[in-house]
Amino acid sequence: MIAMDLSIYNCFLPHDDHEASLAFYRDTLGFELRNDVEYGGLHWLTMGPVGQPGTSIVLHPPAADPGVTDDERRVISEMMAKGTYAGINLATTDLDGTFEKLQAGDADVVQEPTDQPWGVRDCALRDPAGNMIRIFEVN
Fold first, then answer.
1. How far apart are CA 115 and CA 69, in angstroms?
2. Residue 117: helix, strand or coil by DSSP?
3. CA-CA distance, 123 to 95, in Å (whole number)?
């Protein structure tokens, strides 16, 4: 196999309230706003960890995709409300300290820091759109 120089540049998560999403990713997670594109009253927010300009999350309005049918939009909305549509895994070297700050920021905690049977320690929360965010402790 040929080695390639690849890295993760950005990923997409849906949102249904750009102000709530901006506040959560900026104020609760400490990410910086890199871009806010408005079109037709809808917003695409590009957020990322401070000091990591090469990695971003694009928060997008899922209903804006012209290839999505009305039935699909309904299913997406239902799945977002249940927290089963999308998610992201983040990492920290201090899970307990990070979790303490998240609780102080009134995050929607799904799981407190836990040693998982498969060898990782993590916690879980949801963003305002219902996206699952798991935070793993790494050394």
1. 41
2. coil
3. 8
Q: Which residue has the tokens 């927010």?
A: 45
Q: How many other CB atoms are found less than 10 A from the CB of residue 13?
A: 23
Computed from CA positions of residues 34, 122, 128, 64, in that sequence, does the dihedral angle turn out positive or negative?
A: positive
Question: Quick check: 130 and 85 in contact, CB under 8 A?
Answer: yes
pLDDT tens string 2-25: 888 888 899 999 999 999 999 999
- Full strand arrangement of the beta sheet holding 132-137: 87-92, 132-137, 121-126, 108-115
The answer to whether the pTM exceeds 0.85 is: yes
33, 21 Cβ separation under 8 angstroms: no
Task: Classify residue 106 by burial, with Cβ atoms within 10 Å: 0-12, 13-18, 19+.
Answer: exposed
